[in-house]
Write a structure and sequence with these properties.
Helices cover about 75% and strands about 0% of the residues. The chain has 13 helices and no strands.
Length: about 325
């Protein structure tokens, strides 16, 4: 997960976002270098980073608790982003601030719900259920029938990857995962809106600070002084960089050039990346069903990208 993770209107989130007047595009530094990967490359790089961070977070949960891990992750990520971006606090409208506050609330809720889920059900089914949020978004915001086909294909792969059923899982854990998926869909919308209203990653840094302020009391209430342990802080910092700073920044940059519907289907790669990482790093063998599921999800994502490229090419020729 974007385990934990985004516009004038929901419809605007499905079109190629362009910066609002007065919003500077990244011209120098890290954002431009990352942007050279292309929007699809940014999303994939973010997904890989999230899976490494998620694996580390699972090892940290016994030390700090689910809420404590989220609090550390958001706090460290907020500090890092605020120091790097040094966002400007003046000159923003009330709508700008409203957008970034809702974005921060969405991130905090998405992360909190997801970690509550993985505390009750296995990681694979949790990620699979969570991905249903972005997939639902891709169907609801799509303007072309073919995108519904790609979403359906990805959905079939996601369910196959989850073993074809979830009846044996803790219902509370399932509910938390589905809630995290709903927040993930909201994250996609508000990440896109924030990216258009704030230069570079300034909006992300401010939203992360909002999320950290909201979640820190919950983390302290659950874990107390465990959060002050140096090893816990170090691991939490690593989780923050891998699971928040890198992927959220990459996704925000990608959403400036990638429609939310296509981005949402690309998010269905998360379970596939997790399964692949488990095989390569943890030695977890893939079953035939899992391999087929990964193939379905990748085919759906490639189809979505090809459809978007084809639409841009047609628009360019007609223009």
């Amino acid at each position: 997960m974007s385990t934990p993770d985004a516009t004038a209107a929901a419809t605007a989130a499905t079109s190629s976002p362009s910066p609002a007047p007065g919003v500077a595009e990244p011209t120098v530094g890290a954002p431009r270098r990352w942007g050279s990967l292309g929007p699809v490359g940014l999303v994939l790089a973010g997904g890989i980073s999230v899976q490494f961070g998620g694996a580390l977070a699972v090892t940290l949960m016994p030390r700090a608790g689910a809420l404590g891990v989220v609090a550390l992750r958001l706090l460290v990520a907020a500090v890092v982003l605020l120091v790097i971006c040094r966002p400007r606090l003046r000159g923003h409208s009330r709508t700008d601030w409203g957008t970034v506050i809702v974005f921060g609330i969405t991130m905090a809720a998405m992360n909190g719900l997801f970690y509550q889920s993985v505390a009750r059900i296995p990681l694979g089914p949790a990620v699979t259920l969570e991905v249903l949020g972005p997939l639902a978004l891709s169907v609801l915001t799509s303007r072309r029938l073919v995108n519904v086909v790609w979403a359906g294909l990805a959905l079939a792969g996601v369910f196959l990857l989850g073993g074809g059923g979830f009846d044996s899982l803790d219902p509370i854990g399932v509910a938390f995962a589905l809630g995290a998926g709903a927040m993930w869909a909201a994250y996609i919308i508000f990440s896109a809106r924030t990216g258009r209203r704030f230069p570079q990653a300034d909006g992300l840094a401010l939203a992360m600070a909002v999320g950290a302020v909201l979640f820190l009391p919950l983390g302290i209430a659950e874990s107390g002084m465990k959060l002050a342990d140096p090893v816990t802080i170090g691991l939490g910092a690593a989780v923050a960089v891998l699971s928040s700073v890198l992927p959220y920044t990459l996704e925000l940059l990608a959403l400036r050039r990638l429609p939310a519907a296509t981005f949402a289907i690309l998010m269905s790669l998360e379970p596939a990346v997790a399964a692949t990482a488990g095989f390569l790093i943890l030695g977890q063998a893939l079953s035939t069903a899992q391999a087929v599921a990964i193939a379905l999800v990748i085919a759906a994502s490639m189809g979505a990208v090809r459809t978007q490229i084809g639409r841009r090419g047609s628009a360019a020729q007609s223009g």
